[in-house]
Each structure stands twice: as structure tokens, then as C-alpha cells.
Design a protein that fits this description.
Chain lengths: 55, 245
């Protein structure tokens, strides 16, 4: 079996790779968003501390 | 040696513990995904009835199982928070919800891409699919309700009630293929055993644990931000080394 045959999945490539591709994209987007949220949270805390705001 | 488990129910200690655990779960997930996909695509044979597109099973089934499992864990944390009034439980419930919702989306999406070649339809209002769609709405409802109440502790309690009431949907999803005549196929892996080929079983199992490790890593990373946000007026947060620069 060669690679082009493998990716063709006997004509079902769109369905198979569409599934795994979507799952992978969702995982990547989630990781990016969660890491971004951490960065923003830390930034806000620094600003709060430096301003001496009690809130 | 006695371990004081309550120590870790305090956001202060859990914040540090979670930070140490995240890389391990992330590495574990990456290895398991690689192994699971290898077994699923290169060792598992082609299905006799369905052809190559059956390989969607290795993401569809683990993602669907995780969507239900995470909901029960979320509802469990929500209930703990409601009963014992522990802050961390409610924060964990909030941290799990987005990851659970995303696994539900993966389940529905891969189900559609599997349904098309198998049944000729992307979507049917079949009991299994409809109840899984309701699960997505429950996750979104939990997130939206929590976000709509300004006072965090009140938001925790209101969202917890929704999560607990909504958990009745999980057994409905699970047993839907038994209780109703569904287009969706019945369970392949039952409590009594399975007729599935061994390599397929292994791939499914490994992919399930990969999804689980991923979900733990994502949840812990998210809960750390939630802890910081909600404990921002405390001295230990301001003393954190992450904030020094």
C-alpha cells in the first residue's frame, strides 16, 4: 500500500480525513484559546497589582 | 502515610499541583494519540461490511464517550460544590464544560461524516443523535447561565442545578439504541463483552485514554486561570512567581 492509496481511503478519504481533521483543529483551537486566557489573566493580575487596586 | 486530601481541595494548593500535572497529561495524551492512530490505521483490518470509512470509529466513539463522561464529572463537581459549598468544585465544573462541549461537537461532526457514506444522510432525528444534540445544548446552557450571573457564587449554584437536572440526559443517550428503534447501530462494546476484532478494540481503548488525558490537561490549564481570576484579591495570588517580572 502506498501513501496516495492510504490517503484516498478507497474513495472515502473526504469522510475519514474530514473527521480526524476537524477533531485535530478543535484540539488545536482549544489549546490556543486556553493558553491565551492564561496569558490575559496574568496580565490583568499584574496591572491590578501595579495599580494597587483592591476592587 | 496519611495523605490529607482536603489539602488539595483548597484552590491555593491545587493551583500548584495542577501546574505540575499538566505537562505529564499533555505528553501522555500525545503518545497515546500517536499509538492509537497507528493501531487504528495500520494494524486494524478493514471492516467487512463498512469498508475504509469505518475508521472514523476511532475518533467518533472515544469522543462520544468522553462527551458523556465529562458531563457526569462536571455534574458531580457541581453537586459537590452545591452540597459542601467548596469553591474549587464549582471552578472545576466551569473548567470542564467547554472541553465537554467540544467533545460533543466532535462526536456530532464525525457522526455526520460517518452517517453519510453508511446511511446516505448527514443527519437524522434519531434518538441517539437527538439526545447527543441535547447534550451539546446542556453544556452551552451551563456555560451561558454561569456567564449571565455576575456574582460568581450565585452563578455556581444556578449552573450546578442545571448540570444536575441535565444529567438525566446521559443515561438516555447511552440506552437510546436499546430503548428505541434507532438508525444508529447498537452498542458494539457491552458490559458482557464484545464481538469486535482485537486490534480494533485496542485502538478504541488507547484513543479513549488519549482523549481522557487530553481533557484532563485542557481542564487543568483552564481551571488555573479560573482560580487566579476568582482569587485575585488574595495575597497568595499576588505573591505568585508568575506575576514577578
Amino acid at each position: 500500500m502506498n501513501w496516495s492509496e492510504f490517503f484516498a481511503m478507497k474513495g472515502y478519504g473526504l469522510y475519514v480525513w474530514g473527521s480526524y481533521g476537524m477533531a485535530l483543529s478543535i484540539f488545536i483551537i482549544e489549546i490556543v484559546l486556553v493558553r491565551h486566557k492564561r496569558k490575559i489573566t496574568l496580565q490583568q493580575l499584574r496591572m491590578m497589582r501595579d495599580a494597587g487596586v483592591e476592587e | 502515610m496519611a495523605i490529607n486530601w482536603f489539602k488539595y481541595s483548597a484552590p491555593t494548593t491545587f493551583y500548584g499541583l495542577a501546574g505540575k500535572m499538566i505537562p505529564w497529561f499533555a505528553i501522555f495524551a500525545a503518545i497515546l494519540f500517536a499509538v492509537g492512530l497507528y493501531i487504528g490505521f495500520f494494524i486494524a483490518p478493514v471492516d467487512a461490511q463498512q469498508g475504509e470509512f469505518y475508521r472514523i470509529i476511532f475518533i467518533h466513539v472515544p469522543a462520544s464517550m468522553m462527551s458523556m463522561f465529562l458531563y457526569m464529572v462536571m455534574a458531580g463537581y457541581a453537586a459537590l460544590g452545591l452540597i459542601f459549598n467548596t469553591r474549587l468544585s464549582a471552578m472545576m465544573a466551569s473548567a470542564i464544560a467547554p472541553t465537554g462541549a467540544l467533545f460533543t461537537v466532535i462526536s456530532l461532526w464525525t457522526g455526520a461524516l460517518w452517517g453519510k457514506p453508511m446511511w446516505g444522510a448527514w443527519w437524522m432525528w434519531d434518538a441517539r443523535m437527538t439526545s447527543e444534540l441535547i447534550l451539546l445544548f446542556l453544556y452551552l446552557g451551563f456555560i451561558a447561565l454561569h456567564a449571565s450571573i455576575d456574582e460568581p457564587r450565585r452563578a455556581d449554584r444556578a449552573a450546578a442545578l442545571l448540570a444536575i437536572v441535565g444529567s438525566v440526559n446521559v443515561p438516555i443517550i447511552y440506552f437510546s439504541v436499546k430503548w428505541w428503534n434507532t438508525l444508529h447501530q447498537g452498542a458494539t462494546i457491552k458490559f458482557t463483552g464484545t464481538s469486535m476484532q482485537v486490534a480494533m478494540q485496542h485502538a478504541l481503548l488507547v484513543m479513549f485514554f488519549a482523549c481522557w488525558a487530553y481533557a484532563v490537561a485542557a481542564t487543568l490549564l483552564r481551571v488555573r486561570s479560573i482560580i487566579l481570576e476568582r482569587e485575585r484579591n488574595t495575597q497568595w495570588v499576588l505573591d505568585l512567581s508568575e506575576l514577578k517580572k
